[in-house]
Amino acid sequence: MKNIILASTSTVHGGTYLDYILPTLQEHFKHANNILFIPFARPGGITHDDYTNIVATAFKKINKTVTGLHTYPNPTEAITQAEAIFTGGGNTFVLTNQLYVNNLITPLQNAVKNGTPYLGTSAGSNICGLTIKTTNDMPIVYPPSFNALALMPFNINPHYLDPDTNSKHMGETRETRIKEFHFYNTPPVVGLREGSWLEVKGNQITLMGNLHARIFEYNKTPYEVAPKTNLSQLK
Amino acid sequence: MKNIILASTSTVHGGTYLDYILPTLQEHFKHANNILFIPFARPGGITHDDYTNIVATAFKKINKTVTGLHTYPNPTEAITQAEAIFTGGGNTFVLTNQLYVNNLITPLQNAVKNGTPYLGTSAGSNICGLTIKTTNDMPIVYPPSFNALALMPFNINPHYLDPDTNSKHMGETRETRIKEFHFYNTPPVVGLREGSWLEVKGNQITLMGNLHARIFEYNKTPYEVAPKTNLSQLK
């Protein structure tokens, strides 16, 4: 049974890494002592070791140890045997590329489908959708495919941003970008605001956190859904 | 001899389509009566006809006619025979994909290298860099490659945005994104602010407009350059 938390962000404004969601993670990871961390999105180009250390510091507060996937000679085996998995944020193209070149897409899909508790933040959430075509990231590397883990029947847009009505910037708003996605693709997109997350228990998908999410369906006017909304029918 | 204008945007805040740059375009296109328009980036999903009509309305003010590349049975021939070429903005992934699937990359490179006056705005400027890896656009389609026309020895980041120090948004700033590009790529990136453009005459590349541009070189601190700066040595 799938047991997944997909968060918009690791860090809310004014907070420290993962602090806003640690009580939830204590419950989510209650049967795990050690969490396998996938550092491949490499935010800001820090080393995998440095990134893993940041994560380990946060999880120490709820008495979990953390090991980086990059330290295992056989990463497929590490994923298959993990008690719990966390994929951190950074650049979605870099992360996706690393998962493909290391042949980790299928092992990761299988582990999560078989019930290994999973946490994603930002890029780590993005890759659980059908494709990475609704990422906000810059395409700094060319992955073999935009197809993602497809653990959810829709796409996610993390760090969802409402239009800034005071802006003089002429680039596209986030809403415009997602509407353009729907000129070429039909799956729904969940715009997750900072501090929101999706909780997946088997086939039940629920919006969590204090904020509404914005839902974009093909050929429909975008709409807001409140916290605790069941999104299981969205596909 | 190359004769190119690469603009950050088609429309500055409070203005109409291309109006801020029309006097420059009158000189740039002085030997052309008709401009071949490449509408493939399709902003907002409008039809190629509708997009071409917007462009035709703007160019009528300087007595140019405009024809859309999509109306030609043989687009390669249309590019080769064009008096002048304009590629409009929209989504860079969509544009790049269309150029590849229609086998137009090489014809377009050759036409511009042979001296056909070229104008790009936004996505139409992006594709003149080495790759599209510094686009701001959402990757709504998967192109066969991120390699672009390579008419310039660097990459362009149009609609360059300075960090918003008041923002509570935790997504990456533009500067952070471009720094991440340099963890995986070495070419320089020119951050072109709204209302700025690059003028290319042969091998001479000059920053134009009223604003500074921000230059990102591999392993260097980013720096500002003033209007009229010669960027020919940047590679």
Automatic annotation (TrEMBL), chains A, B:
UniProt cross-references to CDD domains, sorted A to Z: GAT1_Peptidase_E (cd03146)
UniProt name for this protein: dipeptidase E
Enzyme class: hydrolase
Organism: Neotamlana nanhaiensis
Sample GO molecular function, one term: dipeptidase activity
UniProt record similarity statement: Belongs to the peptidase S51 family.
Domain of life: Bacteria
Catalytic activity line of the entry: Dipeptidase E catalyzes the hydrolysis of dipeptides Asp-|-Xaa. It does not act on peptides with N-terminal Glu, Asn or Gln, nor does it cleave isoaspartyl peptides
A Pfam family of this chain: Peptidase_S51
One cellular component term from this protein's GO annotations in UniProt: cytoplasm
EC numbers on record: 3.4.13.21
GO biological process, one term: proteolysis
Protein keywords: Cytoplasm, Dipeptidase, Hydrolase, Protease, Serine protease
Protein's cellular compartments: Cytoplasm
